[in-house]
Amino acid sequence: MKHSAISAALTVALLSSAGYINAETASHSVVSPALSANIESSSLSLVDLIQKIAKESPEQLSASVALLVEKEPAKIQAIVAYAVAEAPEQANQIVSAAISIPKHKAKQAVIAANAVAPDQLTDSISTIIQAAISQSPQQAESIIIAAISDYPEDTSSIISAAISANPDSAVSIVTAALIAQPSLAEDILIAAMTTAPEQAEQIAIAARAQGVAPELITTSALLAGLDPTSVAEPTAAGIESQIIAQVSPTPAALITPPASASPALSGGSSNGIDSPSLPNPGSPGSGGGGGVVSPN
Predict the structure, then answer these.
(1) What digits encode the pLDDT tens for the residues 71-82?
(2) Which terminal residue of the chain has fewer beta carbons within 10 Å of its beta carbon, N or C?
């Protein structure tokens, strides 16, 4: 393998600042500034350019693929196919590099690689996505959106791989995934909470912000092995009932009527008003003898 005369550290620094690679990626992801300039200004056809890179700088082939896809995204299938044809042993790295670029098409890259070297693309799509995000963490959201759109059946493993590759972006990855595929909310949340349980509360908040039903969020937490109450949002009704219980008298105390008056004082009134009975002037014992007071 040939190596650039420029130090590896300087090359990594230059390309990282340009947004092409992550400073922590392996050496096969490093492309020299000189080669980058040649790619930009080359008059060779696409196939001839890739053949030249594969022959003269094979250790920089996958990184060169990323630059070519950046330059001509519509040709991603051709770029991947030509590169894999030249270096089939690098199929996994080539596909990862291709889909680390914004607005990529993950399925197109995988199809192209499989068409050329079906036995060489041994990594799962989630592993490829993880490698792509490791190379371009700043593009994690766009990589996830494209990947789960192309491979909805692999949503859980893709989300887990993405968060494992870039745990600091767990919440933004979940948000992007929910926006892109709201129908896959449960798969997204279970995978995210399982992979990053310490961020479950923040993930739940992000899910609520995207309109995910509270029941689905708590169910996802339960299926992820977490206490669902740790991600549940108190309802207004629950808060209100707690306040009433603390500061208000019991409902029974509010509606119990006063005790009935004694029958001895009721006088048999039919108008609902209790009043004391008065003696009948004409009755015995009234002191009137017949109701008339006799003169002396």
Answers:
(1) 888 889 999 999
(2) C
Q: How far is CA 124 from the centre of its chain?
A: 22
- Pull the structure tokens for residue 32: 């020299």
Q: What percent of the chain has pLDDT over 90?
A: 36
Decide which of 140 and 288 is more confident. Answer: 140
**Dist. CA 220–CA 208, nearest whole Å:** 13
User: What are the tokens at 63?
Assistant: 């990184």
Longest dimension (CA), the chain: 152
Distance CA 191, CA 213 (A): 17
Ranges 17-26, 77-86, 203-212: which has the least confidence = 17-26
Burial code (b: 16+ CB inside 10 Å, e: under 16) for 261-286 equals: eeeeeeeeeeeeeeeeeeeeeeeeee
Provide the whole-model pTM. Answer: 0.58
Q: How far is CA 273 from the centre of its chain?
A: 69
CA–centroid distance for 27 within its chain: 33
Contacts 24+ apart (CB under 8 A), 214-222: 216/185, 216/186, 216/189, 217/189, 219/186, 220/185, 220/186, 220/189, 220/190, 220/193, 221/189, 221/193
Dig out the tokens for 9 from the structure.
Answer: 């550290």
